[in-house]
């Protein structure tokens, strides 16, 4: 019978040494990967924070622009209300005056609140009252259009000679 070969002590020693080195290399690689993961995570958070800050700055600028536009629209609707009152259209003038007051209050509210709160309120209002949002925009547009039309007609009448106005003649 053939006898089994005896394990070579040098070979077993080499195997243990290689296994130890492989384990050590695995630990080092794991440490390096962990460190790289932490660095990437930290840098990603920094970039996200910078992006959020830039976005917040842009949103704040948009909010300020919107506040100014709403205030200007409120002023235009108020002027339209005065014009309507002078034209003996009291009911329309009252409605326009109330709308102007609402726009002016909204402008002041937009100016006083943080952007996140304003955005949440607009989303909530638009989601629960889409018809009111659309109707308000339509009424504001109609009132502003009527005001602009009457203002341009008044300016045109002032440019015509008084003899044409008295005679009822229209000059283009």
Structural overview:
With about 170 residues, this protein is mostly helical. The protein has helices spanning about 10-85, 90-110, 115-130, 130-160, 160-165. Helices cover about 90% and strands about 0% of the residues. It has five helices and no strands. Helix 1 (about 10-85) packs antiparallel against helix 2 (about 90-110) and helix 3 (about 115-130) packs across helix 4.
Weakly predicted, low-confidence segments: none
Structural class: mainly alpha
Q: Could you report the average pLDDT, rounded to the nearest whole number?
A: 78
Overall helicity: over 70%
Major sheet details: none
The shape, in one word, is rod-shaped
Any chance you could write out the topology, listing elements then pairs?
Elements: H1 9-86, H2 90-112, H3 115-128, H4 130-159, H5 162-167
What keywords describe this structure?
172 residues; mainly alpha
Brief summary of the model shown:
With 172 residues, the protein is mainly α.
């Amino acid at each position: 019978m053939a006898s089994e070969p005896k394990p070579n002590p040098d070979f077993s020693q080499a195997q243990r040494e290689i296994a130890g080195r492989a384990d050590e290399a695995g630990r080092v690689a794991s440490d390096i990967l962990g460190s790289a993961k932490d660095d990437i995570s930290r840098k990603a958070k920094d970039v996200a924070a910078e992006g959020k800050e830039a976005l917040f700055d842009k949103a704040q600028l948009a909010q300020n622009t919107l506040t100014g536009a709403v205030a200007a629209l409120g002023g235009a609707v108020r002027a339209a209300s005065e014009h309507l009152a002078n034209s003996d259209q009291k009911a329309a003038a009252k409605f326009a005056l109330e709308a102007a007051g609402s726009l002016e209050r909204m402008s002041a509210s937009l100016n006083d609140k943080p952007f996140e709160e304003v955005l949440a309120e607009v989303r909530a209002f638009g989601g629960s009252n889409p018809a009111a949002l659309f109707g308000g925009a339509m009424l504001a547009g109609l009132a502003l259009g009527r005001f602009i039309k009457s203002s341009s007609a008044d300016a045109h009448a002032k440019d015509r000679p008084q003899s044409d106005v008295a005679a009822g003649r229209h000059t283009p």
